[in-house]
Amino acid sequence: MKNLLIFTAVILFFFSSCAQEKTKEKTIADGQTKQNAIDQLIENINIFKSMLIHEKFEPETIGANNQYHDYETITQKVFDRDHITFSYQYPNTQIVIEYPKFDVENILANGYEFTTDFDNHIKAPKITPTTIYYADGTVTNAKDLNVKQQTQPISDYEFYIKGYKVIKAIIYAVETNFYKEKEYAITNEKQVLVTPLGKIEVRTFKKNGIALKVPGLLKDKLKILAQDKSSKYLSTIGTYYGNTEDLDIELKMFIDKLEKVKEQLNQGKINYKEVLENYSWKKVSDELNTKKKTLLLGQSFSAEISKVKLMVLDTTETEQKIYQLTSVKPLLNNGRTSLIGQQEKFGYAIAQDVSKKFGVIDLQGNWLIKPTFYELSLTNRQNIFSGKKENADQFNDYLLNKETKILSVIKE
User: Fold this and answer.
1) Distance (Å, whole) CA 249 – CA 146
2) In the record, which residues are listed under signal peptide (predicted)?
């Protein structure tokens, strides 16, 4: 599938790059001549000839992912705990859940075949905190404490929870609306599968390979899953792609049409301005795109096939699901965090008061260190902070004494 997408991208590159070149036409300027029109026709003919690609083979890395998609797992992967922050801003706690929409493809990597679908159809998910687990062992319904919520223009979701106690974990609901993945069993050659997006014809069914004739619209919405006799999914070792006879016929008809126009232009039977206007790359490629195109798609597998399933991403139907996800945040005691429902013996968090000064709170939200710092952060050393107070010229390192509850400057 990945190689088919690369192939498609190459074709689209032809389209886009040539379209950019042809944008230079803009209007039929006085400086344009018959030779400009001939050059335009020759260029378009050569591009269409290059698209007459017959079946090719591209090797795949052995071990390519050929598993069913677990939407809950991939949703959890995108909304990883590292994308969630708690900020204690008296008298509320701000919870920010980030949706890294511009990095979804990198996060999922090969773990989800239809990454584009994920990015397109969960870019505005509905997120709702449901349960809060505090570090002191108490649990509360987040909805009861929700003060306000707002969504940032790009991707972040902000919630303000009434209260000021240190949070250990949060359970939140993510409402998704994915296109449906539909399964079709492939059993023999000449089989025709009827899908909402068009008919799929099984051209080849061999011991270790499958070839399909598919509508062009389906080229990036299919996944072939093969299993051996023990029902183990087989790795893809190669992908085949190419034009069907239908598409080759369309391309050849376009080439013949442009050749005739070039001949008429040379014979003076047609005006060069008419050619520049009516046979630009944009116009002829738009016309080709209106034709019904079919492609050949095939895959070879690492062992003998016993069963084959075809997964089709049905873009005519969505399926709403709500997943309850849990994010556990390590406490700032650099110690071992117990189970989310258990009480911690010691822990703290950096917090701000109404004056926006920073201090340190204990598990119950009481000030462990009063807010006297203009900037305060935890270092990578246990119980050592970096802070800057009013009128101070520089930052100092401070050591927290758990017994005396005092921050002492660490002297060089």
Assistant:
1) 62
2) 1-19
